[in-house]
Amino acid sequence: MLANILQLPMTWLTITLGAYLLGLKLYQSLNKASWLPPVLSGFLIVTFLLWVTETPYSTYEQGGQLLSFFLGPVVVGLAVPLFHHFHQMKKQLLIILAAIITGSFTTVVVAVALTHYWIGIDAITTTMASKSVTTPVAVAITEQTQGIPALAAAFVMVTGIIGAAIIPLLLKLLKLDSPQTTGMALGICAHAVGTSRAIELGQEYAAYSAMAMTLTASLHAIVLPWLL
Amino acid sequence: MLAGLFALLVFLILGEATQSWVAIPVPSSIIGMVLLLIFIILKNKIPQNIEIAANKLAPLLPLFIIPISAGLITQTEIIQLHGLKLLLILTISLIPGALVTALVLKLGKH
Predict the structure, then answer these.
(1) pLDDT tens, position by position, A24-74
(2) pTM
């Protein structure tokens, strides 16, 4: 009977929702620790259950895709914060765009070059190119460029967690820390996880981080597919 | 909320239609976003329904991402063979990115 239930899309949809809620609780009880965002704990719980029950991913996906479907409207909805940011940053728009273009492409070029020389598998290199954008956009880019969406999601998650941990420290150490520099570096290099770290640092940090994240994502989504 | 979600989906479909019509490689959801942005700029105001829907959906993003992340279970070979290298690459590449961002902003101030 259990085997039958584990075949149902509804079961895996429910398990995913439960795993997320559990992850959210864990995150809140750990004082919003940026090393354990709900997406990571939720992912760990779901993959663990898939592994224990030996459920093929294709079975899981039938339930899971009901949630993945919402990534589309979420990406479209990014136009809303983007419009707000443009208004707030009008005066400094040029320098902000310059920082986003140079900063984000530097981190991507370094990552892509290292992947190409150290690993040399095209699908992985292509996927690596989308590592600096928020997950729904990274997934959309890799689907477009024949990368591996699941791997892109993992890269983005890992980048976000490491970036949120080291970027504020690094810039403080080099005396380059300010709401604008650290906020934007977090948004550009560590996207959503970086932005939740920026919220802890202060409101001004958070505003710069959220703006940098959204601009980086839209810029990369428009430019990358032509280059890959 | 539902009217806003409806509008977001309409723009998503418009993005899809534009993509297949113009045959550009940009993801259709991003084209939908750009179209919505143009619409908002032309109106010079965000329609309330759309703002409500976007603000309600955004915090649920981690939930929507879990199923795709779980697909990693099909990529265990890559992780076993290259996981450590990939971790190193992801860490190392952050440093020049953050430095260039901070330096450009610092220099631009003067």
Answers:
(1) 999 999 988 878 888 899 999 999 999 999 999 999 999 999 999 999 999
(2) 0.88
Helix (H, G, I), strand (E, B) or coil at A174: coil
Chain B contacts of A72, Cβ < 8 Å?
9, 12, 28-29, 32
- Host H or E run for residue A132: none
Lookup result for tokens 């649920």: B60
Please give the single-letter amino acid code of residue B68.
Answer: I
- Taking a C-beta distance cutoff of 8 angstroms, is the pair B28, A31 a contact? no
Burial B28-67 (b: 16+ CB within 10 A, else e): bbbbbbbbbbebbeeeeebbebbbbbbeebeeebbbbbbb
Mapped onto helix, strand or coil, the DSSP state of residue B1 is coil
Residues A46, B66: C-beta atoms closer than 8 Å = yes
Return d(Cα A202, Cα A210) in angstroms, integer: 12
Q: In this complex, do A107 and B98 lie within 8 Å of one another by their Cβ atoms?
A: yes
Mean pLDDT for each 10-residue chunk of chain B (110 residues)? 96 94 87 94 94 91 90 91 96 96 88
Give DSSP secondary structure letters for A51-120: HHTT--HHHHHHHHHHHHTTHHHHHHHTHHHHHHHHHHTGGGHHHHHHHHHHHHHHHHHHHHHHHHHHT-
Shortest CA gap B93–chain A (Å) = 5
What is the rounded distance in angstroms from the CA atom of residue A6 to the CA atom of residue A50?
10
Minimal Cβ distance to A77: which of B41, B53, B66: B53
Report CB contact under 8 Å: A111, B100.
Answer: no
